[in-house]
Every structure is written in structure tokens, then in C-alpha cells.
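quick one before i forget lol
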Amino acid sequence: MIDASLIRSKIEQVTNVATVPHAVERVGALLGNANASAGEVAGEIAKDQVLSAKVLKLVNSGFCGLRKPISTVTHAMVLLGFDVVRSLVVSASVFDLFTTTHRELNGLWEHSLGTARAARLIAEALEADKPEEYAVAGLLHDIGKVLIAEHFPDEAVRIREIVQNRNCLRYVAEKEVLGVTHADVGLWLLRKWSLPGRLLSPVAYHNNFHPSREYADRTAVIHVADILCRAKGIGNPGDRVMPAIHPDAWRLLDLKISDLAPICRQLEQEMADEVA
């Protein structure tokens, strides 16, 4: 087993996940400037035309629930806010690995997008503030799986073998092989890139929910959204086990099974539209 501190050090030093670290560094510097405008931040993103196109593709994919197409990063910034767009900068580049170098992650993008949509729909049903932030947390929740595949390929093979042989949850196999899970790995990277706590906590604890943690309400939404997508067979999260929704998550969100029926119908429609 690799020492967890070595894994964390390697993840925090990631400098070659497409164009993300450089873009986030530049955007982060502007976000630290109280006088920076949405136009200035968008202009910094737009300097990388490929990255800008990827961000706009994500914005217009529908998971944020926008009703009209967005044609500029500036417009996206105004509608969605700095933190959401900065998160999309991360997502747009890291998720490229889903369809290029790591074929074994086939289906993870669809699962992530489904979780993002489900999280937004749940947040809207709860009348939560800024449901698009819940959507972005859903999009990012399994980002650590990509990083493990990219930076620890031998261990990733062992993880897949354990999952297949034992039919266990992927994070159980990750813990056995690496001593940490994809949630830990995702948290370390996103924290290094200065994403806010309200986006970090759902990534860190969606598989290990506890109602006393900070941003437990947001984590509960991602926890439920993730399992909902598993139940509906949306994408491939890396295993075929169906975990139970934590009872404290149900209680915190004050949800009933019947509340999920209209959410499931809308989710199925949105995912069908995505395929079409």
C-alpha cells in the first residue's frame, strides 16, 4: 500500500491535467482581486480558446438548468457566478480524460453528468439557493477516480480487479489498495485549486455522510443524487453495487420516496434529451 501522504503530495503537485492548473491559477489570482470584473475573469479563460469552448459546452449541456443557450464565458459568469465557472474550468479539462486516455472510465462521464442533473433537480425541489452549485458539486463528485486512473495506473488495475472479483463498492477497493478513496483524492486536488468549502464537502463526503459536518445539506443532496443515478442505471460509477441512502440524509433533507418520483421523471427526460 502506498503511503497516503505520498499520494496526497503527488495529487497536489499535479501540473499536467490538460490546461486546468494554469487556467485556475490565473483565474484564481483574479478572483482574489476585489476589483476584478466578470469580464476580466472571463477574458482570462477566453485566452485559451479550447478551454473556453469546453466550458461553454458544459454550461449549455443542460445540467445547470439554464433555459437559453449561453454564447460567452462573460455571460456564464454573470448568470452562474465565479465559483461555478471556476469549477467548470476544472471539470472541462479533467473530464477530457474520460474519453481519451482512460477507456476504463467509460460511463463515468455520463454518471457524473447524471448526478449533476439529479442534484440540481433535488435542490430545486427543496427550493435551495443556487441549485447550479449543487449541480457542479455533482459533476465533480467522482473526479478523484480520474486522477487515480491517471496517476496510479497499476493500483487502478488492482482496484478494478477487486471490484470485479468481490462485487464491492469501488471506494472499498480503493481504501484497501491505496489507503485512501477517490473522495480523498478529489478533495486534495480541488482544495489545492482553492474551490470553496460548499463545493469541497460534497466531493469529500458523498460516500461517508454525517449530518454534523459542515455543508451537510449539500453533501446529502449529492449523496442522494449519486445513489439515484445508480438506481436508474445512468452511466457507470465503477461498480454495480447499490448502496442504501443514509437515513440521516433523508431526515436532513426531509424527503420521502414519493418526492423522488417527479425528480426521476425529469432526470430521465433530461438524460434522454442529452443522448438525442
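fyi The two ends are 44 Å apart (CA to CA).
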